[in-house]
Amino acid sequence: MEQLSLAPLRLWHFRVIYPAVVVFLLLIGATIALWWLILMQIRAEREAIFERAVSSVVNRLESHVQQHEQILQSVQGLYGGFVQVVRDVFELYATVPVRNNTAVLSIAYAPCVQSSRLGSYLHYARSERYWDYRLFPEATQPHLFPLLYVVPPQEALQRTGWNAMVDPVWREAIERAYQQNALTATPWIPLRTAPDTVWGVALIAPVYRMHPHPFSELRVGERFVEGIVLMEIAGHRLFQQALATAAPTDSLIAFEGFDVQPAPGGGVRHVRIMVSPNWQEASWREPALQTERALRIGDRSFFFRFATVPQFEGRFQRWLPWLVLGGGVLTSFVAFGFVLSLVTTRSRALALADQMTRAQRRILLASHDIIAVWELDGRWRTANPAAASLLGYEPDGLAGQPVEALVAPGEREAFRHRLATLPDEEAVLVELPMQTATGQLRWIGWSLTLSRRDGAIYAIGRDVTAQKELQKQQELARRQLLLAEQWALEANEFKTEFLSRLSFQLRNGLTGLMGFTELLARERGASEEERQGYIAAIQESAEYLLSLVAETPEVAAVATLERRPVPLVPLLTELASWAERHGQQLVLPSLEDEAHVVADEGLLSKALQALLQGLASAGIKGTIHLRLEFNYTEGGSEWSVSVPATDKLCRIATLLRDYPPLQALRLDDSEAMFAFLLAQAFLRRLRGELRAECVENSFVVLFTLPTQQPLPTAALSYG
Question: DSSP string of 598-660?
């Protein structure tokens, strides 16, 4: 019995604890990953800051070294541009660099002198205003390099005549300069010993000439040795000048520089050349980061050791990863407890959800409207069974198929555009003609709601075919009534004109009849009484007819159009502006200012606008050519409007030619056909006839309008 009672309890514990444990383990794993990422990020940031600090110091040192090397190279180039450089020229070119660079102790020139020609050289040196010039120390080498020109002048008093070949360090640097044909540098050596020792390096640049030197015939390859130019650089001043402008990152690092030189007893020794003020502070403990960099001076490399200061790593950065780890563990326990409290009610929530799902499923199955979900790219995802009853396609067969395939071909482009411009989380009503599985066309009114968060389009479609057919019939009836109205107005205007002309003719005839009757009454006849009776009856009848005819124009004039000569230039200019506003370019003919037609200006403007509107509804948005020909003898003008032919325009031309207007409208109830029929009705009221033809890939609309013969220059008068 105890085992039977424990089994449900264990099952309950397993189901409850399992989701909470999974969440706890996931959060612990995410916390450890976040701790590791933050630790690596802090380490990468520290390394990047340390690298920027080191690069800043090294770049400034290299910049100043290159600056001094360029100075020596410019002095070296002085000998390539002149045949002979005398003392004044050398001092002129070397004085300014020495004054502007405090690290330069001196710039000097030392010619190559053979021991056998030493006397000639001493005579030449003293002729250069070095009156007490002498060579020191005594030399026994076959070739000497005594200093001749030295800048600044105060250094020349002590340095002039010094033979650089005596010192093994200098001799090795001079020989290496000629062997490598490049700038060389001495090791870190004392350059001055009195009154204070000044340590530094000397840069040496070789100088050649194409012909033998007066004091030496030493050759290296195909060239003769001229001598050397050298620059003595005080190391402490050089580093102080390079690091004078402190960077913000200088306080984060400490560094020392050293020169690797051969030790007297064998091996190598490290000669310290500089040290930062905070090096002792940084070297008492193991630094967080350290590195070595080489500084190239001439052909020699000096090494610098960089290390971080104790305050390089902030306290907050040191503890941040551990704070994140502790917070993540605490959050994991809180989430574990929260999930554990939630899953205790999971079974009840699942039952309620299942009940709601069954209710929604009943709604989907019983609905007569299509309830579907589309992908964002316009493909079916799911649909309810109403899709089979309305469109004839099973929901499973629609899955993955494009919705566009069921849309009528003429509406697919508009459907793609509408689908691409749907707003987010907003219902939009769209009516689409869709093809069923049997080939029939049904109008479906879709309510579309795009949800980018869900990655889907929720669609509810209702069959609105009956409403669309009713709207279509109502629109057709409205257009037929509008055309019938224009035809009635045309008939009324024709009747009015006919009655006006009839009245005019009858009035003239009756007036003449009454005049002749009056003449007859004045004549004498055999039977006077009888004649007077007939005459009275004729006159009475004529007066009665005349009164009736006189009233006819007043009644007819109510509905008569105001026909008068209409100037064409301003009318067509305004029409071209109207066409341009509607995306068309109307090409007008060249007309004289007095060109006109006899018409009602407002009705003619409406007819031309209806014609252009018909072309626009048929898809013509480009150039439209308008041509006019006048025949004043016959009182008419011929108009033609031509555009490139399309299948739709050619069908309209065929219907206009072969069918009565109302039947043509029933066969093609498009906006284009209605606009052409309306323009035709307007022109008929203006006594014009409209025809449309497709000729040689062109669609041409032809119509005529009456005009008047120009007035003669001189009018005739009759007496």
Answer: EE-HHHHHHHHHHHHHHHHHTT--SEEEEEEEEETTTTEEEEEEEEE--HHHHHHHHHHHHS-
